[in-house]
Amino acid sequence: MTGDIATYVQDVIHPVAPNLPHDCGDDQIPAHVPPELVKAAGLMSSPEFLAAPHLFMAAMHDRLPPIFYSTSPHGNMWNLIKHEDALFVLRNSDAFRNIDATPFPRDEDDYFFFIPQEIDPPAHRKYRNIVDPLFCPAGIKTLEGLIRQRAIDLIEGFEGDGECKFTTAFGRPLPVSVFLDIMGLPQDMRDTFVSWADDMIHGESPEVVGAAFNKAIAYIKTAIAEKKTNPDKGVVSLIANAEIDGRKLSDKEVFGFVCFLWIGGLDTVYATLNNIWLWLAENPERVEEIISRPDDIDAIVEELLRRYSVTFSARVVTRDVELRGVTMKKHDRVLCVLPACNFDPEVFPNPLEVIFDRPRKTILAFTVGVHSCMGGHLARMELKVALQEWLKRIPKFSVKPGTRIEYKPGGVIGPKALPLVW
């Protein structure tokens, strides 16, 4: 029986799948969707998108209405590309619930929530409070030395070679190693975790995604059991032994929390670094500008995050809502195309141009609102440190001649490979 999102109650102790309607394909377009708003978005997997994802999403403002409806075998949904509209959706958790909005398959007989992503206020804040002391700006500041040393060690390992495969030599190892440090998980599992995450996020079949997810589930459950027996200072241990309102978190809560952080920590910063280093390699004069403006590093990081956002954010409508004259009905799904929103020319004039002195505006690289990304401050610090330490040692570099840049399909955008020379 189909559930009702307006009355669905999240039982975190004994979670039950919401069992919401999920329209898929051209033959399941709801009657209230105007035919003229049904468009082929081409996001995430079309040849045009994969040829140049960020240029593709910037051009959406020229060829598509601000709100349109796309169909797919994986799910039909409204697509939002205007900055203002995304702010409205992401800040309005009553009308747009962040639930049943991930692509990862879950067993309905052993269901769990991705915590805190899928938890509504006010309970959402109670979960975030467990880890906020570490992920808040002050907490991240205490990690700066660790992040900096990780970056230095990696760069000094290949600096004298005159070349590197950036994605595997630095882009992936830096954020994943830091993440494992924070979580209290072993560094020797880094490449295995990366392989699983890659299949989960970029796998081209449900079977590939499901197989990788099941491996991750088995490992995470084992790690949690170990941290309950032998607690340490890592985040997995912190969550495994945490309390809310005087009660210990249940096994399902702990697993859903750790699983969510595990997925989120393995791919987004990696993809961001790959995109930005490709831009740096192709724009040596802008590299010189960055080096000449050390006091502006925070503004530089913010603009690069705007220009090279890598993720999307989905919600489910809880009640009928009208936006720009478009009626979205209860149970409709909505996708905020965050990179396109960061290319909104009404908010960011000349959006494809990297302008370090832009007036300060809210960027949507890490969403906003109740469900804003917990790792946003960490990502900013990692990018800042990476820029500082790399450009200090390798100020002049370029893409290896003959390289053809290719992108993987999926919900996190970044080059497959980026060979660099200097």
List keywords for this structure.
9% strand, alpha+beta, 3-stranded antiparallel beta sheet
Low-confidence stretches are none
Biggest beta sheet attributes: 5 strands, mixed
Order of helices and strands: HHEEHEHHHEHHHHHEEHHHHEEEEHHEE
Q: Give the number of helices.
A: 17
Work out the radius of gyration: 21 Å
Mean pLDDT: 93
Question: What is the 3D shape?
Answer: globular
**Portion in helices:** 40-55%
> Structural class, from helix and strand content?
alpha+beta
Distance between the termini: 61 Å
State which percent range the strand residues make up.
5-15%
The strands making up the biggest β-sheet line up spatially as: 1-2-10-7-3
> How many strands?
12
What does this structure look like?
There is one protein chain. The chain is an alpha+beta fold and 422 residues long. Helices cover 45% and strands 9% of the residues. It contains 17 helices and 12 strands. It has helices at residues 47-51, 53-63, 83-90, 123-135, 137-141, 144-158, 166-171, 173-183, 190-202, 206-229, 235-240, 251-264, 268-282, 284-292, 297-307, 338-341, 376-393, and strands spanning 67-70, 77-80, 96-97, 163-165, 243-244, 247-248, 313-317, 321-323, 326-328, 333-336, 398-399, 419-421. The strands form 4 sheets. It has a 5-stranded mixed sheet, with helices on one face. Strands 4-12-11 form a 3-stranded antiparallel sheet. The longest helix has 24 residues, at 206-229. It is globular. The N and C termini lie far apart (61 Å). The mean pLDDT is 93.
